[in-house]
Structures are given as structure tokens and as C-alpha cells.
Amino acid sequence: MIRTLLSDDLPRSRALTVLLIGIVLCLALAPFLFPGVRTVDTAARICIFVVLVASYDLLIGYTGIVSFAHTMFFGLGAYGLAFGLIHIDRSYLAMGLGTLGGALAAAVVALLVGLFSLRVRAIFFAMITLAVASAVAVLFSQLSSITGGEDGLTFKLPRSLGPAFKFGTETLDGRLFGVRLNGKLLAYYLVFFCCVLLFLALLRFVNSPFGRVLNAIRENEFRAEAIGFPVIYYRVAASCMSAIAAAFAGALYAVWLRYVGPDTTLSMEIMLNVLLMVVIGGMGTLYGAIIGAAVFVLAQNYLQTFMESAASLVEGIPVMPNFLTADRWLLWLGLLFVISVYFFPKGVVGRLRRGKTVPH
Amino acid sequence: MSSALLKTQDLTARFGGHVAVNAVSCAFQAGSLTAIIGPNGAGKTTYFDLISGQVNASTGRVYLDGHDISRMSVASRTRAGIGRAFQLTNLFPDLTVMENLRLVAQSKSARPACIWSMASRHKGLIAIAERALEQVQLADQRKQTVSELSHGDQRKLEVAMLMTLDPLVYMFDEPTAGMSMDEAPVVLELIAQLKQRTDRTILLVEHKMEVIRALADRIIVLHNGALAADGAPEDVMNSDIVQEAYIGRGLEGVLDAV
Q: A326 has which bridge partners?
């Protein structure tokens, strides 16, 4: 059962298994274990970034394609959901249609970019995706009448996903283990379960016969072609699948934030963060996405707080507080990154799996 | 002669001013093994590239079973029935030995691009790969990655890949180069068995004379990209053109030298 859910792709390392179960349990029970607006927000972001990073790993780790347009697909999904809710109505059907519209747009763009440029050398493809992504980001921030420009769009979710919606008031007095049963809780679990489903779907995809061909293409594209796999079709299809998954992640992000804007979904900064998460977790393994996203999002959200308290500890010692002021958190994040790449060149997962043989 | 399984007609590869293969016309019958010989740089490997599609013909055509395949991609030619083992080992280095062969079996299967089933549960494909592993005596190494294999074992895997593909046209480019004395016979025995199959044709680029004597039904000689001789092994060895092409040394001397 579990083997089938995980598509026969088990963590293959006891430490990794424990770590993954720990992270997943924390995410599954986040509203109860860590009640609080900020903690639950962090947990939701981790869920969403796990899917986004996993979908990017499908390209960079499994197929060996470097793309800088991944946040563009993330954004298309998010805007798709927003358009659905704004222009149809605030119903679940509109959410679904908007998301599918966004995913379809992402697939079409990925198909066009892929057909035009996946034939050329890898570096040109990377450049082209960079250009297209920048163009789309500018387009979305200029078309104010449609996209809300730099300000983005706010919208209303179905009533049952809002904080004002309460349930279980008669039977449970509106609380479970002290946590208020409201629409925000439902929204969290909507995000969580969709992310679990998307992750398992991606895991199945990379372990399917199709996914195995992607590995072969990464390893030796010349030979993959010579044993009868038309490389270009596989690459384009992988790039479309990856775009669709990213669009779904984007839609979930929009559900969670109840807002879309160029900064939250389309910016190059998110693209770089995703790249860092892939590298920290380990390329070519979807479990790396869980670790990478968890480590990075936690650091992003709590490093500042941590440093504030650290700075107050070293108060009085010259120079030290300057290094530890909360404003310097990016410096420390960068250091963390350099150190992790130095010690774990194959990511955390690669390190934990070291010396383990491949099954089958 | 009956209609050929593979035919090349005026096949030419030009790179700038250099003509690597010059108007080679040749037909290969099913159920036969043709050795292709010639000194280094004679165009043997480029001739293979033209047939399997890695290089597109400047002029001329390639026919497989009467169909023109000259404009088809490498993958389409493979699916049509052209298969090749490469001279320089050309595998998937970070994948396991098993996975290398399983991928080939998958390529031959009815649905090679299924996206929702698990590759690990297509037992039929794994069994095909397993059989090929045993044929070349690599079964014990199935879980190793290719990069961990010895050079000789990599060469054996290269041959096993082609056996698994089971094309109509088998093209071997020095299959035993780099193999030890006890490894080579395994591969040569496999090729000898292949010859029994009357619906396949085998092309073999080879330098070792004893291999050619043991296996070849026919020899063609390429020299400076052109077809210099073509015929039964004994006739070709003794023909004037070969003797002239390799003045004073004899074919065997040249072959040993390269």
C-alpha cells in the first residue's frame, strides 16, 4: 500500500525516513501542534514550496534541463485562480476552473517555448526561458486593468474557506484540542492535502516508464535517441508536466494568501529560492524537495527572529552585535547555503543515502 | 540475388571539403554477416553513422527492407529496425546495469511512454533485461552502476543492449575491442548464434583477422571513404585492389598495424 503510494521509490535510508516522517507529521498536524498565525502560515508555505521545488526538480534533476521560467508557471496558476474567482464567482467550481485555465495556459506556454528552443543547446534554452519569464513578469505588472499591475489582485475565496466561517459549534463547541474550527483551518487542510496529492503524482510520474526515459536523457541523450526514444518529445512533455504542476502549486499559494501579485508569484527572487531549495535538498530525488523547502522556508521565516535573540546575547561585546543584527540575515542565509553545498554536494538526501545501492 | 534487407545507394558524407564516405552503394542480404574493413580514417564508422542516422547523408539514400529511411531521425530508424553497438562505449553511466537494459526493453514495448504505471512493476521488461544479462554473463553486476564496471564489462553491456533491442540490422563496431581473452569468446559466440537467424543481417566493423575469418560471409573494404573491394572473404583478401591499396604489406599487416 505505502509502496504503491510512493511508487516503489522509498527513501532508502533510515535517517532520511525518520526525517521525512517527522516533517510530514509536523505539516499534517501544524495547526494543532503549533497554533498561531505565523507558524501555520510557515507550514502552508512549506507545503506549497515542496510541490514547486519537486516540479522544478523534475526538470533540472531528472531530465537535466535548466529553466529560469519556473516561477512564470507558478504565477500563471496563481493568476488563473484569481481570474476564476473574480470573473466567475466565489465558488469552488470557479476556483477549479480558474486553476485548470491557469494550468492549461502554463502547459501551452511550456509547449511553445519547448518546441522552439529545446532543440538547441542547453545554455540557449536557459537564456530563452529567462527572457520569456522576464517578459511575462513585465507584462503582468503593466497590464494593470487585467492583472492589477504591481498591486496585484485580491479576491474572495468561497465563504467556507474564510476565517469567519465556523463549524462544529454544536457538537464540539467550535474547538478541537483548543484550536478554533474555522475556514482558515479548512483552507490549510485544502492546501496540505492538495500538496500531498500533487507530490505523490509527481513521484509516480518520475518512477513511470516515462520518467525513467527522462533519467536516460539526462545521462546520455545521444544513446537515449539511439535506443529509440525521440529525445525532443520527451523533453517537451517533461517541461509541460513540470509547468502544470508548478501552476497547481501557484493556485494553492493564491488560495492561501488570498492575493496574487508579481512579487509573490512571478519574481526572479522566488526562482532563485527554488533553485537553492533544490540544491540544498538534493537534485534528482523528489524527497530532496521536502527537505530543501522545509529547511529554506524555516530559515527564511525564523532566521531573523533567531538572530535578534542572538544579538541581544552578545550585547556589549564590540562588533559582534553588528554581525548578528536581524538585518544581516541574508548574509547568514548565504553562508548556510555555501556551507551546505560544500559539505553536501549531492544535497541532504544524497548525503543520507550515501553508499546505499539503488533497488531493482 | 533476392531483395536486400539493407541497401545503401551512392551514400556520401561530406564535411566541408572532406569526403568521409564517398558514394558507397552496397546491399546486405538477410541471414548474412558482412565484415567492413579498412585502415583507420577509411570511413567505416561514418558509414555506420549514415546508416543509423547520427550523420545525415550529403547525397545518396539508405533503404531498409525497400523503404527509404535516409531522412528519418535516429530514434525513428531504431524503431524501424536499425540497431547499433558503439565503438566507444556509450551507455547511461549513473544508471544500473539492469536499468540500462530495461530501458532498451521498454523502448521495444507496446507503450514505452506510459506516465502512470510504475516502471518497477513491468515484470516482462525486467525479465527481458535479465535474460540479456545472463547471455553476456553480467547477471552478478546487475545492481552496479555502469560507471563502476570494468571496461570489458562495459563492452559486454554495450553488446547486450543491442541484443535486447533485437533490430533487423545489427551493427557492431569492434565489439570485442578492449575485452580480455576470456571475455571475447562469449560475445563472438552470441554473434555466431545471431547468424543463424535468416531474417536479420549483421554488419561488423572489425580489425581482428581471426574474428573475420570465423564469422564473415563477405567482406567489404573501405578506403578513403570509397568502396575498394567487395566479395567472399578469400577473394577479397587476395584481390588486386586490396593488394594494391596496401602495397608491400598485405592486408593482414595493415590490419595488425591499426
A: none
